């Protein structure tokens, strides 16, 4: 899962990025509204953390522009605690949730997990596919109750597929959501990670859809017709 953090306070930006990285997310960052708007408009993100008080272009304007351009990724806005009007303006502009400063990082992490789950149609922090269970809170995965020992890239791939269970996901989409904008992306590595996941899980849950990509389905689930 790939997150964008747009915050002009360098210390807070760093703290958010470090906390998200520890949770297994790929993180891009911006320090002003113009850069943030550009990244959000040109790169695919699973969620965005957006400060309201930004230089160059304020957060409300950034959000309004994204929504006008049909950018539908979940957005968590950061507001000043005593500025209730910012919260209202943010929600009206298209924000999905907000956190008031100062805040605990754990709260931001929980809200981001919830936004990503809801955007994919999931209510629980534990996602299942047959015997596979992925706990988005602890970043752990088990098959039949046995813990899987996964690398960070393997977990990111598994997490993205199970968030989009039943959907065909292209190699390009997987690459875009597994690596930040500075990474030398190679879609061929996806095949390697899929192969490793299949061996470690020991169950046939990841289907190759020839010419299109991959789809996660529980054993016995078949397409209609």
Description:
Residues 124-218 form the OmpR/PhoB-type domain. This is Response regulator transcription factor. InterPro entries: CheY-like_superfamily (IPR011006), OmpR/PhoB-type_DNA-bd (IPR001867), Sig_transdc_resp-reg_C-effctor (IPR016032), Sig_transdc_resp-reg_receiver (IPR001789), WalR-like (IPR039420), WH-like_DNA-bd_sf (IPR036388). The chain has 225 residues and is of the alpha/beta class. It folds into two domains: 2-119, Rossmann fold (3-Layer(aba) Sandwich); 126-216, Arc Repressor Mutant, subunit A, CATH 1.10.10.10. Helix content is 41%, strand content 21%. The chain is built from eight helices and eleven strands. It has helices spanning 10-22, 33-42, 59-68, 84-93, 105-119, 152-163, 171-178, 188-201; strands at 2-6, 26-30, 47-51, 75-80, 97-101, 126-129, 132-135, 140-143, 146-147, 206-209, 213-216. The strands form three sheets. It has a five-stranded parallel beta sheet, with helices on both faces. Strands 6-7-8-9 form a four-stranded antiparallel beta sheet, covered by helices on one side. Helix 2 (33-42) packs parallel to helix 3. The longest helix has 15 residues, at 105-119. The protein is elongated and about 50 Å long. The mean pLDDT is 91.
């Amino acid at each position: 899962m790939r997150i964008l953090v747009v915050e002009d306070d360098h210390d807070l930006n760093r703290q958010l990025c470090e906390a998200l990285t520890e949770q297994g997310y790929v993180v891009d960052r911006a320090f002003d509204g113009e850069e943030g708007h550009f990244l959000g408009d040109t790169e695919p993100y699973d969620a965005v953390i957006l400060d309201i008080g930004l230089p160059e272009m304020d957060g409300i304007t950034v959000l309004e522009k994204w929504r006008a351009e049909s950018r539908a990724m979940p957005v968590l806005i950061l507001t000043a605690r005593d500025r209730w009007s910012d919260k209202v303006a943010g929600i009206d502009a298209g924000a999905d949730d907000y956190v008031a400063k100062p805040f605990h990082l754990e709260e931001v992490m929980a809200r981001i997990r919830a936004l990503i789950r809801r955007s994919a149609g999931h209510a629980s922090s534990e996602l299942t596919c047959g015997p596979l269970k992925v706990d988005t809170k602890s970043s752990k995965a088990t098959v039949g109750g046995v813990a899987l020992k996964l690398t960070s890239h393997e977990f990111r791939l598994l997490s993205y597929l199970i968030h989009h269970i039943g959907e065909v996901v292209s190699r390009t989409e997987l690459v875009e959501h597994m690596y930040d904008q500075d990474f030398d992306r190679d879609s061929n590595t996806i095949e390697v990670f899929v192969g490793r996941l299949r061996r470690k899980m020991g169950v046939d849950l990841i289907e190759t859809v020839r010419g299109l990509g991959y789809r996660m389905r529980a054993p016995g689930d078949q397409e209609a017709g």
